Each structure stands twice: as C-alpha cells, then as structure tokens.
Amino acid sequence: MSDTSNMDVFNHEAFSGHEQVVFCQDETTGLKAIIAIHSTALGPAAGGCRMWHYRDNGSALNDALRLSKGMSYKNAMAGLSLGGGKAVIIGDAKTDKSEELFRSFGRFVNGLGGQYITAEDVGISVSDMEVVSQETPHVAGLNSGLAASGDPSPFTARGTFNGIRAAVKHKLGKDNVADLTVAVQGLGHVGWHLCKELHTAGAKLIVADINEDAVKHAVKEFGATAVSCDEILFADVDVVAPCALGAVLNETAIPKLKTKIIAGAANNQLTKDTDGMLLREHNILYAPDYVINAGGIINVAAEIDGKYDRKWVDEKVAAIYDVLLDIFKRADQEQGATSTISDLMAQEKIAMKIAEISKVGRSGRSDAKKDIVA
To answer: From the CA atom positions of the chain, what is the Rg in Å?
Structure first.
C-alpha cells in the first residue's frame, strides 16, 4: 500500500469541514489506522471503526473522511448529542487481527481525550472492541459494562426496515412490505437481520453476498432467491437494499437499475454527490444512507452516558420512518435530490445548535453547550 497520490489531506475533496485527522502507526503491532473527526459541534465525535484491506492508503483516507462527515450528518438527523467521527484500520480482518493491535488502537483513541468515541463497524466485532476498551473508556457497543447493550447491528437493521417502509409508503402508497420483492446486497450482520425483518413482514427476498455459506443459509432460512453479486443491484424488484460497502451507485450503474426504491444500510452508497439527482431523474426514490442506517448509532448513543434506556432507543429508531417521510416530502417540494435535501437539513440542525450555543455562551454560562445538546 505505497500509493500516496490521494494523501494530500488539506486539499482532499472530502476534507472540507473536518476538525482533525489522526494518522496512527505502531510498528510493533503492525497497526496502521486513520481517525477522522469531522465535527464536535454537537458533542464528542462518535462513529465506528472498520478494518479493511484497502487497495492503497489514499483509499483508506477517502473512506475515513467520507464516513466521518456522514456520521456528523447522521447524528444530527437522528437528534443525538454527538458529533461525527470514524476510524479505519488498514489490514485484512481475516488475517491481521491481534490483541496487541487492538490495544494499540485503543491507546490512540484514549490519547484524544474523549473527542472521539469508537465502536464496531465492517470487519470489526464486539469482541474486538472489548479489547480496545481495555485501553480506553471511549468505546461503545460492548457486551460488558454498566450500560453495555452488545452488537448494535439489529438496531441498524430495524431502522433500515423502518426506512424501507417509509420509502414504500411515499413511492408506492403502500403501508407495508407484504408481497413486495426486496433485493438485499450483503448478508453481514446488518443485512442478515434486515432479511429477517423483511421475511417476517411478508416480503420476498433476493440476496447476494461474496460469502456463499451466508447465501445458502438465507435461501434455506427465508426462502430467498440467490443471484450473483454482479446481478443483485440490477434485479427487477420493488426495493434494492445495499447492505455491503459503499459507492455502488454511480452514473454507470444508475441507468441500469430496474427498481423503484433504493433503501439500504450501506454507508456512502452514492459515488458522487450528483448521483442523488441522477436517481431522481430516473424516477428512483433514494433513502439517504446515513438517515436510514442510524439505528446502530442511536443504540450506541444510549450507552455513552452510562444509563442505557431501551425504550428511548426503540422510539428513536422508530422515528427514522417519519424523518425520511419529511425528507421525501421536502425533496418533492423543492424538486431536489433526497441526498441533497438531507444534507441541507443536517447542516441546518448543526448550524442552529452552534448558534444557540454561541448565544447562550455569550451570556457567560460555562455549561451552555451541555445544556443545549442534552
């Protein structure tokens, strides 16, 4: 991974608005990681850590920057008192993991003094985060501890299911997903739980994953139809739910889509910002990814203050349905891309909080920020 062509951080197209980017290296453990903190305006930057075998270092940086910005917007749209951050560990999750590596990562997180709170993401398990927690308290989504609630994936899946329902209501005028066909791309933790939700609700499933065993299991468990990873996005279905890695929607793929709705849990599904309008031009309703997949971070947020409240989590996850309906309605009114409208709404929320904090702060109260965002 020697390529550095995309490592000019300050001039990177995705760097705008970021407060801090930390490059972490530990030669003893082999750790190479990037922690990107986009914003702490609403609270400490929170977002998961993923481990991936990136094709080069520039790709890792780009992923960290895009994901951290998405977390700022995700947390804002979910109404959480959290900013946005993300971490990526460069390596093969199947062969490069070690206790020493994760403890080293934990020390880097701890060195940020609570500005960044980490959790599991692609390639990282809850047990990995348990190791990280041995070096820092700034970890959430754990199986142990005062407010631990375990794997947040089921909450991400439930929120995505609620988002699909909202999209179906807006686009198809239907109150449920019974007898609709949904193509699920990716059968990891979130994708699997989403399939379970959809199957229980009466949807017909088409699935694809690079893990053949997961596909066979879905066929047996949910009566799903298996297709190849190359075919899944272009299936003739009511809903396509991308639940793997991002950047699957672009100017080449979008004209080939046969679905009416894109609503899935993957982060950064659009390759470029203009792809949101391209989807609209092709009469495809897009549920902005960082809104529909907020269930996991909502559950994580409930752990952070040490007083986990399952009822609060369930209510917040259920509210994803209404948040998306608001976005869809405004996008229609303004004839804009749902992705653009969602960004604007998130920016408005962040700007409003900053203005309130600034106004109260000028009154001389030192605890103004805490009161405003709590």
So the answer is: 20
**What's the token pair of residue 19?**
């407060």
Are 119 and 48 in contact, with CB atoms under 8 Å apart?
yes
Q: For the segment 192-216, what is each residue's pLDDT rounded down to a tens digit?
A: 999 999 999 999 999 999 999 999 9
DSSP SS3 for 369: helix
Reply yes or no on whether 69 is catalytic: no
Q: Which of 32, 69, 74, 86 is catalytic?
A: 86
Cα torsion 25, 26, 30, 34: sign: negative
* Residue whose pair of structure tokens reads 């700007």 in the numeric block: 351
pLDDT, tens digit, 9 for 90 and up, residues 100-138? 999 999 999 999 999 999 998 889 998 999 999 999 999
Compute the distance between CA of residue 148 and CA of residue 132 in angstroms, rounded to an integer.
14
The model's pTM: 0.85
Cross-strand bridge partners of residue 205: 182
Token pair recorded at residue 239: 């809903």
| Residue 166 exposure: Cα atoms within 13 Å on the Cβ side | 26
Alpha-carbon distance of 247 to 52, in angstroms, equals 15
